[in-house]
Amino acid sequence: MGDLTLMSLMIPPDISFTVLTAITIIGAIMALQAKELIYGAISLAISFIGIAGFFTLLDAPYLAMLQIAVYVGAVVVLILFTIMLVNREEGAKMEEQIDDPEGSMGLWLAGLLALAISGVVALVSASLPTEAPPANLPISDLGPALMSQYPVPLIVLALLLSASLLGALVLAKVER
Amino acid sequence: MVVFPPTTPAEVVALIVRIITSHTFITLVFFPGFIHLTLVVIFLTWYERKLLARIQLRIGPLYAGGPGGLLQPLADGVKLIFKEVMIPYKASKPLFLGIPVILVLLSALPFAVIPFGQHWVIANIDVGLVFIFAMTSLFPSMILLFAWASNSKYPFLGGLRSLFQQVAYEIPMWISTLSVVLMAGSLNLIQIVNAQEKMWFVVPAFLSCVVFFISIMAELERLPFDLPEAEPELVAGWYTEASGAIFMLIFMGLYMKLYLMSSLVTVLFLGGWWGPAFLPQPVWFIAKTLIVATLIIIPRGVYPRIRVDMLIKIGWTRLLVIALVNVFLTILLVNSGVMAAWGI
Amino acid sequence: MVVNPWLAIIIWAILIVIMTGPMLTLPIFWSRRRPDPFRDMPFESGQVPQGEGRHRLVMQYYPYLLMFVVFDVVGMFLFAWGVSFVKLPVAASTIMILFIVLLAAPLGYALRLALNKENW
Predict the structure, then answer these.
(1) What is the CATH number of the domain that holds A17?
(2) C49: closest CA of chain A, how far (Å)
(3) Which of A132, B145, B295, B320 makes a 20 to 30 Å CA pair with A99?
């Protein structure tokens, strides 16, 4: 099949950084500005996928998969379910539609400014001082680090998760 | 020598030849890529109809051409393309048209990491197993969105039921694969298969295999977990309003998911491509996957349907407990060194 | 060619979208496009549809969604632990087992709340 090392195909990381910034920022702004809540939730999901792309770019693919599975897979489902609970009529918009053209214009301008900065950084990155890229840690280092260095945060996390679960359930159930 | 960017036509030709004969291109397009995937999915639709027909003492597709109606899926595809796509009244058009494409994408994307042989994989990433689980966890939200987008009662009810059913069986699926990860020591699917060279994981982790098998039948919405698309009750569940090309995309997505889950069982529990060396590795892989697919299809003609609240309860209580018990069993087995003879 | 595996995945995704896209756009050439109120009515087995299309939400299964969110995160932590299991001493794994056991009690209580239908 030919020599596998003659050519290497890769996208320069600056281009992928700019594309991911665009996806994340535009998704987040659309999530705030959407007139129908469901489309806002979908844009939020797209923004989360952009953040997962950032994690991949930073050599943390496991964290990227965690982000997609937890945020886009579970939290967005919860948000959608809640929106459908509230939105009883089809096409219902928010009750008092706060029309704020200056605010929304400011939001878009801020987003475009952030995008422009990231694009400029990508263009001139060759002349910026660089530091060593983060070491490519394998996932098998994550487990021992969790156990040996961070056992207390792990147990606190377990308690926090159970507290939030029980709190949400108790708040949501119907008092008889 | 290959020069990039090419300037003369000879260099362009050399570049194209270099790309076409590269490993990535061959795996992307031919095997295990696009052409193999579409052919197997089309074969699976015919295979299911024939198999169910034989179980139900009838014949199945017969006249569509070839021996035994082998071109029936082709006839179905042509019929569905020429049908009219009806978008329901006040439905959300971008969602209604866009989500089937996303469903096919989500079903097909994990095939990039499933290894069909020692080197037959499109993308060998270190977090392959978690990538597949991240992709399958996006299914419930897509189904809920599509059910909401068709502004109609049957799809909405079916979509809600489907959402809760798939969400209930995700966690037992993950925890049952935890035993495999414990024994193999890696999330990379090629290394998981390599660790099964001497002993398939179905032997020490038999309970996990059973739990995983039941969970994927619930994820695929196959009988006996068929209630989201119960024909006497909900017409077709969340894809009732899909017609024509939309239905064809959803249909293909469902069968791609069937092939994906069967090949996942093969990779995780049945030793992947390991087999006696007189047949090449991918042949063993596809043979094992087809056997698993047969085992998934057969209960459709045999078992009655389970009610949806009992279904969700079983997923959260019994299956989760059995999966956790097997994780503890695996911990005991690995720590006691019983499996050292098999390289674990 | 040495290709970054993530790039291969992106190319695979683009290939899938390119191949399935025409299936949606080709039928435009040979199907009617006028909105017809009788054809586009939601399907209710032949009778005239009444009421809203999206209103029946059952709250009965809401706790299962909450449990799914929590156990999604727990599952990811378990995978991170499981990968390095063979390298760890036995004592370190007890912390993870404590993690699971600490979540088992709230799971049991949440299931009891969920299975009791009068709560919803």
Answers:
(1) 1.20.120.1200
(2) 15
(3) B145
